[in-house]
Amino acid sequence: MTSTFPDISISTDRLVLRPFDATDVPALTEMMNDELITAWTSAPHPFTTADAREWALRTAPAERLAGRGIVFAVTEFLTHRLVGTVRLHHTDWRTLSTEVAYVTAPWARGEGYACESVLAVARWLFRDQKFERLELRTAADNTASQQVAQKIGCISEGVLRNAWIARSRTEDGGWTDIRSDLIVWSLLPEDLDEVRAPQTGGTGYAAAFPGWR
Question: Where would one find the signal peptide in this protein (predicted)?
Answer without folding.
Answer: none
